[in-house]
Backbone:
């Protein structure tokens, strides 16, 4: 069995730019105000608490494997009784899978790049969700 | 993917992150399609058993549950795990052993057992092949069950 190469593979500048551009487009189509695929909004509407949102954010930035995120969401939806995660989970898993497919395009199926790119994309998505959740939360407080 | 890959390689990490995840999810979907779902507590001991005693401990758990468990509803679940994780003679669609055998980075290291001229030779080849597959099984069994359990819980929401 061959030893892995210890060379550090870095994402080049054009790919980093492509990741940002893709996330910008993703934001426009899914997260700009009033979009029905906005998971931050869904989390707020389904009364998921701040702890749940921060938990998701912490996991996104501490996990070493993309599938840990998908598994976390499935686990949350599977164990709860209140059904708050169910709708959110379905949409979030779908969006994560879309990002995973995009990572293969951007990383040209190079394993090290694909792994790195999909984590970057996932973290970008979670940032959108968290920001959107707290924005909704603030709007709600102000309107009361 | 290269012919042989190391456990720490990015190729192997991508394998456990994607093809293994998809395979585990398909196994769950297949089980649920054919059987009555078992309660979540049947699955909850699996990760700690693997953490404590690796694949050998899991094999013991499956065997004991399969033989001792008296609840009729739980029997098919442990039978399913037995069929797809322990027994290797029969090729089943969701056998983890046969799924691993098909992966190019493992297949390229295996000898063709069908080419053996005698029974003794075939047995020897199988033993050699298992020596190659077993370390992979040990490495990925806990992650396989992370995928398997989470997908199972997700697909059977409310069945705690």
Residues:
């Amino acid at each position: 069995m061959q030893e892995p190469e210890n060379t550090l593979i870095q994402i080049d500048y054009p790919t980093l730019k492509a990741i940002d551009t893709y996330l910008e487009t993703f934001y426009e189509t899914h997260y700009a105000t009033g979009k029905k695929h906005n998971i931050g909004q869904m989390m707020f509407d389904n009364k998921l608490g701040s702890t749940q949102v921060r938990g998701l954010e912490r996991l996104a930035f501490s996990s070493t494997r993309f599938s840990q995120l998908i598994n976390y969401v499935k686990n949350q939806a599977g164990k709860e009784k209140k059904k708050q995660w169910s709708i959110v989970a379905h949409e979030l898993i779908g969006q994560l899978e879309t990002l995973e497919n995009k990572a293969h395009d951007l990383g040209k199926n190079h394993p090290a790049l694909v792994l790195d790119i999909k984590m970057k994309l996932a973290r970008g998505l979670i940032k959108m969700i968290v920001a959107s959740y707290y924005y909704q939360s603030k709007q709600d407080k102000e309107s009361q | 993917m290269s012919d042989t890959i190391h456990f720490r390689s990015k190729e192997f990490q991508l394998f456990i992150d994607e093809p293994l995840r998809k395979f585990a999810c398909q196994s769950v979907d297949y089980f649920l399609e054919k059987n009555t779902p078992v309660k979540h507590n049947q699955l909850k001991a699996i990760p700690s058993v693997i953490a404590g005693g690796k694949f050998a401990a899991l094999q013991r758990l499956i065997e004991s549950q399969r033989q001792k468990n008296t609840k009729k509803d739980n029997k098919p679940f442990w039978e399913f795990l037995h069929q797809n994780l322990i027994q290797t003679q029969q090729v089943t669609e969701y056998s983890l052993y046969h799924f691993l055998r098909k992966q190019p980075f493992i297949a390229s290291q295996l000898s063709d057992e069908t080419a053996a001229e005698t029974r003794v030779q075939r047995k020897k080849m199988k033993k050699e092949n298992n020596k190659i597959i077993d370390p992979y099984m040990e490495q990925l069994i806990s992650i396989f069950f992370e995928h398997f359990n989470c997908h199972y819980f997700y697909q059977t929401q409310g069945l705690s």
Summary: Chain B has eight helices and no strands.
